[in-house]
Amino acid sequence: MKASKVFDQWPERYDQWFQTPIGKVIKTYETELILEMLKPSKADLILDAGCGTGVFTKDFIFAGAKIVGLDLSFPMLARAGEKLSGSRFLMTQGDMERLPFADYVFDKTVSVTAIEFIKDARDAVDELFRVTKPGGLIVVATLNSLSPWAERRKISGEKGHPIFQEVVFRSSKEMRNLSKVKGIQKNAIHFQKEEVPERAKQKEEMVHSRGLDTGAFLASCWRKPQHGQQF
Fold first, then answer.
1. Helices 21-38, 197-208: crossing angle, 10 deg rounding
2. At the N or C end, where does the chain have fewer CB atoms within 10 A?
């Protein structure tokens, strides 16, 4: 089944997960990391590729940016449109591997937990670079292959879970190698889904300063070179 069709069934469940007690904690730490890297501002036109239901898009808009949200799944995109109606949000249905935009359109581009559903992730990252203006930021987040979360989801896929059957999780090194441009990688979420929220927060704060590379949420950031600069 195509990824778009799989996710067509998930808008409601996807949003509900982030409303659970532990889902809210996870969302907080993931959002902090993405905003730290992306640094959205009122001057920015940002592409959110694989925006889903707009869970993270809302935070970029709140920071003042104008957002174009792209997703393969129309029901996911429609949910985002409903939630973000009246805001600085435009949406389009499309494929991350063949972005329907000209070169150098966006000040910044971001993609959160979508690239694991693309086997040749380099093509998708190349596309994000292509549509980003020189000097702009490209931020891509995924589920870290070195984390227990990834192992659990692989097992779910093997047992027939439709979303995780063909998923590709990557490590910090593998994400780094998706571009010739030198980037940075950071991770978060060093606790498990079953953790009591308060204990999860304590564990995250305790582990944060240790620089481990096994956090479930792995984010990479690259700055596109200016014209004439070497990659």
1. 30
2. C
CATH fold group of domain 3-222: Rossmann fold (3.40.50)
DSSP 5: H
C-alpha span between 206 and 121 (Å, rounded): 32
Among 168, 170, 172, 142, CA closest to 157: 168
β-partners of residue 36 are none
Residues 192, 197, 200, 206, Cα dihedral to 10° = 170
Residues in the chain: 231
Q: CB atoms < 10 A from the CB of 217, how many?
A: 22
| Cα angle 121, 71, 138; round to 5 | 50
Write the single-letter amino acid at 218. L
Asked whether the whole model's pTM tops 0.85, one would answer: yes
Strand pairing report for 66-71 and 184-188: unpaired
Closest to 53 measured CA to CA, from 79, 74, 24, 72 = 79
In one letter, which amino acid is 222?
A: W
Residue 200 backbone phi and psi in degrees, to 5:
-60, -45
pLDDT tens digits, 65-89: 999 999 999 999 999 999 999 999 9
Q: Where are the domains of the chain?
A: 3-222
- Smallest CA-to-CA distance from 105 within 35, 153, 47 is with 47
